[in-house]
Design a protein that fits this description.
Blueprint lengths: L1 H4 L24 H19 L18 H9 L3 H60 L11 E3 L2 E3 L2 H13 L7 E6 L2 E8 L4 E7 L3 E5 L4 H39 L7 H18 L30
Helix pairs in contact: 4-6, 4-7, 5-6
Length: about 300
């Protein structure tokens, strides 16, 4: 429509004002043409709208009419438009049901596998973290003049500066990124490895669970980082507990959701039934290209048998 108007409303048109008229004739092919224009406008509006967009938008360019449909349009049959509208509505409802079933099957898989496995993992992790928190409390961080009590490469250190320097020396002596035993501190075993992605050295604290502590260049600062890593076991325990509670809630919600039927099942059933009625009523299923003549062909009898001629 806009393309046709563009021949009038364009640069170079010297007329100060133009009028555009559109004529529509009742019970003609105009009804179908305007329906196509309406469909294209709805498609464009779905994309251009500022409101919450739909999950999918489709434009049907290759829309074909059967001979029967053209005949019904030409004769002004009132059922043809209802049939065409129902075709679109049923197609959309079937797509919604397909998406619903896809999500439902995904939830069923989660109910059977993912959620039980995730809940078991989180419970096991909580048990390990609980023990690590207890270990950290039994071996509190040294304060004031208390000896550090850190074992690095088989040597016990009471001063943070000396222990920190020993860790840096251990880093310098590494000739492979693979983890090596480093020592022990506050009831946790320590391993040292080189992170090839982040390009830095890392101390792995190992108890019932483990925690990675990236190292820096400052000897004293590395000891502070390790202490902070041990203290964060309690924070991780709280986060894991929250994750377990959320996962259990999601598990229960998923079990309820998979029991729900498709919300528009009745609408789909009713419109499909009506569409079947219209197809029968309009006789759309018959081939309209079969031409039946009331006169028999030359040389053919009324009963369908060809007449025989004999030469004398």
């Amino acid at each position: 429509m806009e393309q046709r108007s563009g021949r009038i409303v364009r640069q170079g048109n010297e007329n100060p004002q133009v009028d555009i008229y559109r004529y529509v004739t009742e019970q003609t092919f105009d009804a179908y043409l305007y329906q196509l224009v309406e469909g294209k406008q709805k498609f464009a509006s779905q994309i251009m709208t500022s409101k919450s967009p739909v999950r999918s938008a489709e434009d049907i360019d290759e829309t074909a009419l059967s001979y029967a449909e053209i005949k019904m349009l030409a004769t002004g049959n009132p059922y043809i438009k209802e049939k065409m509208d129902l075709d679109i509505q049923v197609q959309k409802l079937k797509m919604l049901k397909s998406n619903f079933l896809s999500e439902k099957y995904g939830l069923e898989d989660k109910v059977i596998k993912f959620y039980p496995q995730q809940i078991a993992y989180l419970k096991s992790r909580m048990e390990g973290l609980t023990k690590d928190v207890e270990t950290a409390k039994l071996h509190p961080k040294p304060i004031d003049e208390q000896p550090l009590g850190m074992m690095v490469s088989g040597v016990s250190y009471s001063e943070k500066a000396e222990a920190g320097q020993a860790i840096i020396n251990a880093c310098k002596s590494m000739n492979s990124p693979d983890a090596i035993p480093l020592g022990e501190y506050r009831g946790f075993q320590m391993e040292l490895y080189f992170d090839t992605v982040q390009r830095n050295y890392v101390v792995k604290l190992k108890g019932e669970t483990s925690r990675d502590v990236p190292l820096g260049d400052d000897a004293h600062g590395n000891i502070v980082r390790i202490d902070n890593g041990i203290e964060r076991f309690e924070e991780t325990l709280a986060d894991t507990k929250n994750s377990l509670e959320n996962t259990e809630k999601q598990f229960e919600t998923a079990k309820q959701e998979i029991e729900k039927p498709f919300a528009k099942e009745e609408e789909l059933r009713a419109k499909t039934a009506r569409l079947d009625e219209l197809n029968i009523l309009l006789n759309m299923d018959k081939k309209e290209n079969e031409i039946v003549s009331g006169e028999p062909d030359e040389g053919e009898a009324v009963g369908g048998r060809k007449e025989k001629s004999y030469e004398r």
